[in-house]
User: Which sequence fits this backbone?
RNA sequence: GCGGACGUGGCGAAACCGGUAGACGCUGCAGACUUAAAAUCUGCUUCCCGUAAGGGAGUGCGGGUUCGAGUCCCGCCGUCCGCACCA
């Protein structure tokens, strides 16, 4: 009997698939189409285990779909623009393009070594002009359709490096390189009108029944449709010529609990106050220090500045509320101004306690109705309105409606729908991205680059010695003539957010003509993606942007598909134990070894502390590189491990013992197949097991429950091993090759060939279930007393309730337990259990 | 701060509609084969009491519904993810 030798076999079949064009997707095929897609990788340099897991899952599904008669599109490409390339350029003095392309080449080889069933003929990289040029064309189409506009928006400004920072480059309010306190600075930037589609994006979630509920809920909350009241406070003085201050609230019911009004630091009222008040100016400056991210802003200490202005309560003009400038009010949401109800909002309560403002209860917390609110925990739950005049006794919803209709009658406010979703800012002040195809002309304003001049190609001759955007200081690229009037003008130097690249790559995979972004009919023959697989970290932004982009293409008539991804699966991370020396420094898994129950350094034997199992990360050095693992154990063992044990949506802890186990299994499987001896006769138990497995695995793969499919294959393997030679056993061996083919394709091809089958197993049909072989005739019945298991017995399937009851009462163990007592009641669940209540 | 999820043996987990908790894998232990080792094979492996037969406890914690709860309800605790310029 031979051994399974992946070092010899893997490459052989990878070449065979490539030569035969096995996985090339044929648009003209009349088979049912299936589009399987995993989120394309950023070419960071090496494939990591997270990629291997992600792509293995998609691969199993793609191969299974092929075997069940589908024409499968399973492509791969590169999300190739982004900051790491520029960081590498600064640190290693390499051009971002060279760095990126070298990374792509290395990672492509790595992916190929894993034997994924990919259609490489459709490979694309977003950093190449043939991709981003088409993206520029789409941008211009959206611009023409009125879906693109410019407005002022805040960025993180590093005053020392004189550059814009990404949120992740702001650490505790400081720039990551310079250490300088970051400022919020306003720049004129490009926006896409995603809010035009807010209602539709929300409504569309309802039809995405193959998406995880949690993702739909997260998107729903992100879009954040809320019904509320927009109304005007009358101020005691005119500011900017206005004596009104417009606010928005989702809780108009709590209007009688108001104790202050607050505006954002960049609200016009705040700006006006600051003109004459140095303290206000200083406060605003303080609010604008630190990063722009919501997490930073909202978790900071609540601070306010009393402007001295007061606002009259709409129901009682002599009741005056102080107007504050506050650091937790966001200019981007609602009107940038709110009223604070400390008793029923935690932020407002913290603020009121800090500044000694009144705290009035207006919603009863059970029996608690007193106007004076005690304690430091706001009550945001349900309750009847109290201390609220005409609202008293109403529930929250009725009170909201009552206040809105009163405001509308009296003319000082109106019920509105507000969205948390904001328009998508796509401007990035960086080099390594899609150039925005706009030329700024003094006379004509922003003018789109004519389509026959696309692509606007990034200049190659740039340097990264100075921080900031090299496009900005590249005169020959930047200075051009206006396409409209011909006078001197300048190119837009901002590039597009990389989320734009990933908002349509799945369409380009389906159709990639040279002269346009995609062919409508061809793209529509594949779309929507049947199963999209990627990390949960993309649950909101990427997926929402792609859904928006698809709708935008819809509106301009380029595509009739509305939802890009019919099925979505979010997979868990690959984790590993962490190791630390006594001094706190991290060690990588290959620097440590086990001695008994303890870990020590592999070279000098010093003790090592094994820590928590965490996401693999460079900073904690708990990273395992797939390459040497594939070399040692072969692609199939790695793939098998990726599918085993952990449910795919949960984290998968990588372990040396685990990959060893997978390796042993591949060898065992090979021995089972290669060592099968012909026999006579049928083996009914094995037949049943086989067909139960065929049925179960099909379901498991379709629901991406790979860990369950793996467990069933172990059970079947165990059963075949134990079975004596027979015709049934030979059939089982021939069948299991096809059942494992999506998971361990190299081994399966080799076995298929060894068994003398014709063609490739990748093209073989998936085995059929014979329902007549699934029937069980004996079942085990549990016998409980008061819900506790006391005995089990075996009975023919379908035994009547009365017979089961008699059998149960006839058991010695039960008689002993009952000790002569009469059962009060007996519950019988046929084919399952008998529960005796004593 | 806001939003979302998750929690079952030493470990990863399974358990379909509320019906035998722990399938399957890993680890560990014992044994077989071997001159020896590796590989392989066999058995055991939730915890506690007990030589055993057997008994008791048990699905993060505290309550509840039910003949019966890992599963349903209420309240906690812990961990992880996202928060619009990381991708």
Assistant:
């Amino acid at each position: 009997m031979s051994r399974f030798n992946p070092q010899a076999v893997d490459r052989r079949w990878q070449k065979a698939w490539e030569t035969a064009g096995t996985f090339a997707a044929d648009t003209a095929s009349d088979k049912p189409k299936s589009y399987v897609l995993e989120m394309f990788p950023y070419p960071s340099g090496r494939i990591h285990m997270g990629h291997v897991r992600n792509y293995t899952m998609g691969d199993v599904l793609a191969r299974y779909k092929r075997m069940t008669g589908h024409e499968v599109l399973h492509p791969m490409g590169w999300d190739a623009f982004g900051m790491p390339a520029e960081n590498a350029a600064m640190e290693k003095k390499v051009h971002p393009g060279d760095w990126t392309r070298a990374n792509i080449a290395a990672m492509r080889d790595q992916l190929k070594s894993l034997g994924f069933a990919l259609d490489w003929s459709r490979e694309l990289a977003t950093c190449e002009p043939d991709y981003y040029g088409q993206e520029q064309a789409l941008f211009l189409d959206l611009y023409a359709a009125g879906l693109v506009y410019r407005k002022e928006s805040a960025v993180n400004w590093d005053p020392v490096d004189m550059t814009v920072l990404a949120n992740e480059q702001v650490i505790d309010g400081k720039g990551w390189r310079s250490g300088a306190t970051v400022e919020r600075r306003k720049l004129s930037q490009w926006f896409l009108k995603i809010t035009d589609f807010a209602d539709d994006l929300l409504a569309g979630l309802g039809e995405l029944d193959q998406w995880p509920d949690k993702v739909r809920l997260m998107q729903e909350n992100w879009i954040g449709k809320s019904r509320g009241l927009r109304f005007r406070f009358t101020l005691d003085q005119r500011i900017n010529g206005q004596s009104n201050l417009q606010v928005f609230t989702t809780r108009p019911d709590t209007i009688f609990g108001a104790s202050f009004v607050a505006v954002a630091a960049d609200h016009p009222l705040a700006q006006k106050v600051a003109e004459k008040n140095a303290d206000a100016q200083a406060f605003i400056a303080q609010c604008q220090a630190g990063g722009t991210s919501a997490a930073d802003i909202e978790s900071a200490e609540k601070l306010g500045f009393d402007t001295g202005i007061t606002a009259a309560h709409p129901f009682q003009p002599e009741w005056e509320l102080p107007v504050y400038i506050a650091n937790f009010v966001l200019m981007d949401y609602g009107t940038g101004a709110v009223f604070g109800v400390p008793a029923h909002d935690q932020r407002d309560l913290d603020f009121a306690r800090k500044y000694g403002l009144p705290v009035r209860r207006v919603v009863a917390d059970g029996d608690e109705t007193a106007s004076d609110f005690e304690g430091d925990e706001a009550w945001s739950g349900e309750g009847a309105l109290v201390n609220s005049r005409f609202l008293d006794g109403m529930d929250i919803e009725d009170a909201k409606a009552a206040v809105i209709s009163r405001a509308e009658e009296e003319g000082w406010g109106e019920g509105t729908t507000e969205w948390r979703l904001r328009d998508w800012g796509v401007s990035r002040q960086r080099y390594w991205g899609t150039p925005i195809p706009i030329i700024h002309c003094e006379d004509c304003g922003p003018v789109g680059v004519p389509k026959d001049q696309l692509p606007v190609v990034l200049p190659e001759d740039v340097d990264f010695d100075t921080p900031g955007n090299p496009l900005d200081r590249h005169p020959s690229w930047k200075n051009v003539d206006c396409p409209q009037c011909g006078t001197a003008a300048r190119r837009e130097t901002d590039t597009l957010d990389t989320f734009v690249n990933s908002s349509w790559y799945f369409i380009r995979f389906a159709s990639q003509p040279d002269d346009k972004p995609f062919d409508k009919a061809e793209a529509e023959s594949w779309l929507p993606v049947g199963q999209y697989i990627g990390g949960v970290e993309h649950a909101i932004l990427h997926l929402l942007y792609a859904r928006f982009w698809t709708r935008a293409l819809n509106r301009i008539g380029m595509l009739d598909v509305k939802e890009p991804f019919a099925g979505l699966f979010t997979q868990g991370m690959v984790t590993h134990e962490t190791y630390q020396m006594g001094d706190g420094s991290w060690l990588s898994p290959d620097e440590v070894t086990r001695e008994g129950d303890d870990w020590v350094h592999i070279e000098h034997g010093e003790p090592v502390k094994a820590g928590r199992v965490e996401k693999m990360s460079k900073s904690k050095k708990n990273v395992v590189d797939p390459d040497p693992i594939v070399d040692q154990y072969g692609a199939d063992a790695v793939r098998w491990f990726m599918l085993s044990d952990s449910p795919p949506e949960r984290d998968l802890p990588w372990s040396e013992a685990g990959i060893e186990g997978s390796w042993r299994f591949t060898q065992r499987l090979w021995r089972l197949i290669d060592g099968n001896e012909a026999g006579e006769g049928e083996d009914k138990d094995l037949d049943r097991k086989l067909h139960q497995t065929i049925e179960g695995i099909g379901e498991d793969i379709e629901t991406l429950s790979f860990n369950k499919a793996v467990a069933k294959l172990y059970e079947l393997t165990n059963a075949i091993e134990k079975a004596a030679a027979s015709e049934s056993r030979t059939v089982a061996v021939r069948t299991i090759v096809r059942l494992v083919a999506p998971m361990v394709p190299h081994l399966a091809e080799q076995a298929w060939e060894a068994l003398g089958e014709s063609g490739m197993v990748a093209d073989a049909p998936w085995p059929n279930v014979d329902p007549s072989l699934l029937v069980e005739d004996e079942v085990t019945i549990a016998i409980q007393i008061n819900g506790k298991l006391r005995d089990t017995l075996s009975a023919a399937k379908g035994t009547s309730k009365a017979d089961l009851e008699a059998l149960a009462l006839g058991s010695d163990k039960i008689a002993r337990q009952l000790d002569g007592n009469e059962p009060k009641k007996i519950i019988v669940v046929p084919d399952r259990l008998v529960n005796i209540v004593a």
